[in-house]
Structure formats: C-alpha cells, structure tokens
Amino acid sequence: MATEVVMPQMGESIAEGTITRWLKQVGEKVERDEPLFEISTDKVDAEIPSPAAGTLTQVLFKEGDTVEVNKVVAYIGEAGGDAAAPAPAEAPKQEAAAAVAAPASQAASSAPAPPQPAAPAAPPQAPAPQQRAAAPPPHSPAPATQGTATPQPSAPERPSAESTAEELRRTRSSPLVRKIAAEHNIDISQLEGTGASGRVTKNDILSYIESGSALLPQEAAVPAGRADAQGLRAPSQPPAAPPPPLQPGEGDRVEPMSVMRKKIAEHMTMSQRTSAHVATVYEIDMTRVHRLREAKKAEFQQRVGTKLSYMPFIFQAITQAIRRFPVFNSQVSGDQIIYKRDVNLGMAVALDWGLIVPVIKRADDLSIAGLAKAANDLAERARAKQLKPDEVAGGTFTITNPGVYGGLFGTPIINQPQVAILGVGTIEKRAKVITTEEGEDLIAVRHMAYFALSFDHRIIDGADAERFLSYVKEILEAGQFTV
For residue 199, is it within any domain? Predict the structure, then answer.
C-alpha cells in the first residue's frame, strides 16, 4: 500500500502552499520524518517531513505549483518495494474530486445537450441590462420555450455547483484576501481566481486593485457630492495601468522571483497603499547599555546558555514605551482602532533568500534573559526553516535591525496590520558633546545609534511619535536594566 503525502495546513488561516523544492526525487529512498519537500505560504517557509519510510514512487505536483491544503502531492511506497504508481482505485477518487472542483460550465458542456427549439424573434433593440437579466447563467442549459417537452437537469445539481464556487471563492479564500476585499469594497465572487480550484489569491486581488478596477477604501466610502467637504477628493482619472514588462538587453540575466520574493513584494506594496507612512529619527546614547552588556555577557552566556546582544535591552525599552503609549500596539479596522492586549514583538530576520518576521509573544512579560533566549531561538530556527506558523503570526509591533550590517538608519515599511515599526541603526563610537553635573561641556567618545520610527499617520500624530521615541531614549540612556 502506498502512503499519501498531503499538503499540510500550516496554520488555521492557511488554505494553500507553494511547493518551492523537492528534496527527494522519484525512486529515491526516504526515512520517516526526513525532509521531503519545501513549501512557502503566506506565513512561513518550511521543510515538510516524510510521513513514512519507503520509496518516493510518484510526485503529483512540480516545483512552483500552488496546492490546496490536505491535497495529495506525492506517494511513498513501502520500504523495499518497487516504484510503482498508486493503485488504479485511486483514479476514481481523484476524478471525483476534480469533478467537484471543476467549473459547472464544464459539467454542463459534457452532458447531452437538450433539443433546442426555434428561437423566437428578438425585440429590435432590447436594453442591455434586460438582456443580461433574462439570460440564463453560463453553467445552465438554455430554458425551453413554453409547451416544449425538454428534459431538465435535476434541481439539486445547479445549486450544488454554485455553492461549490462560492465556497471556494468566499469561505476558502484566506483571511488576508477577505480583509483586503472588505477594505476595498470588492466582491470576491466576481473575481477570477488563479489559486487551487479557482480560489482568489492575494496576488489576484492585489492585481485587480492595481489595475484601477477597484476604488480605494476612502473613495468607495465617501459619496462624490461630499468628497470635497470631507477633504477626500476622488481622482479625476483611474490609476495608471502597470508598466509593460521590460525587455532585457544583450548579456542581461533574467530569473523569476522566488515565492517568498513575490510575497514580500505584495506585502510591502499593500502596506504603502494602506498606511500613511511618516518617519522620525532619534540619536540615542547607548553607552551605559554597552558597558552593562560588556560587564555581563560572559556570565550571561554561562548562566543562560545564549549570547547577550543589544536587542533584548531595546525590546524591553520598547515594551515599556508601548505600555505607556498603547496606540503603538493597535490596528486599524475601518473607522475603528483595535488596541491589542498582548505586546507581541516581531523581529525582522534576514535570510539568504528573503526576509521573515518571527514573533516574540507577550514580550512585555519576559526578562532580559527571556527576551534573549526567545530572540536567538527564533532567529536560528528561521534560518533553518523550522518555524511554526503561529511563530510568524500575531505580531503587534515590529523591530528591524539594519545596523547589524553597518547601516546608520532607514525608514522601514510598516508590517501590516500593525501601525508602527522601529529601525535600529548601527551602534558605533562617535564624538559627542556631553554636559557634566557641574554644567561643564566636554567632548567625549560615546556609543551612539540612530533609531528610526515609521508610524501610521492615520491614527498616530507626530507629537505621539516624538513622545514615544523620547521615552525609549530615556530608558536606554539611563541603562537601568536587570540582567
């Protein structure tokens, strides 16, 4: 008996996954729990282990294919057996599943066509809306004229097909897709999906919005007559169509975007469209934190079992500031602000193939040691593709650290649906003017860093951002941490 290998559901809201790489080829031996293939989802990249030991006998999807969760992607034969295909009994089951997922129009076209009566003469110029209203749906045969005995399909078949399409497009689209649709007043059932079984994917709906076919949320919500009065002006013309593809020149190298690269691009452009991005930058004296870290890092490594970096101190300063200014731990839902109870810090981790943001849950409850252990563990497992779906979900505030590469500061893009993100620049020695307790000014060498805060100006005022970052500066420059 062959063992089915299915696309796992990597989280409650995940409906599909993209196979990025097969780690075994057909005919190769595989051990139970040995990595079999890699997938990429909206939340996480992961290696999927083999459910059984044996021989990989058949692969049903190639690299780059997007597959619905719980769908069979491969078969593993018993150890020592040959690489035969699965039993023919599997074919009817697969055909039946394909028949359910297929559009109803295909089912209708394959059925014998009922006899067609002579069509009555059409009115000379019937209005287009009436023609559309009277026309039968594309998946059902044309209605018979009165008095003609024409076989009719059974009543339950048509609603079944319609409900299947609705389920695929509405209930089985990801929560992110449904959220974007709600924000832009888009009816998902009207879109042509390219996902599994016709599902509308995030790329589908973002492409639809980019094309200018959908109104922006504020344009749809504000009547045209009141747009000027409320300061929201509808554009005089629809957004420009996306530019045509560029033609590579001689000697240029062209390679397709990876799945992760596509998802990052979609998420970043969506964030720029959603939030009113503003940034403020503070220079913070990290000298006291530096001295504390240097004095404690050897003992900390021996006692806690992990290295002590600057980030746990920054994490703790941020959680304290969030508790004082809770709007930085909120989300926007229409015209409402949702203040999140838990402080879940996202930490951007650079990978060789992209970027991922694992989340430290309830970071405000953790000590410096707890924050260090959580951060180092998540970063290591992110680079090894061993994160679980819930470990990259639920973030309420994100911190990114370009300073590890020497960058002074940048203006990071907000990680939706959050409302702020902090960028930490490199911590380096600089000559600074300091004032002694006696009021004397001196030039001294200090460990300094730039902290750049990008925030959503829809709900965060500039004064609030300044108070927030000023409080972070106060905590870090005081250096009063328990290690």
Answer: yes
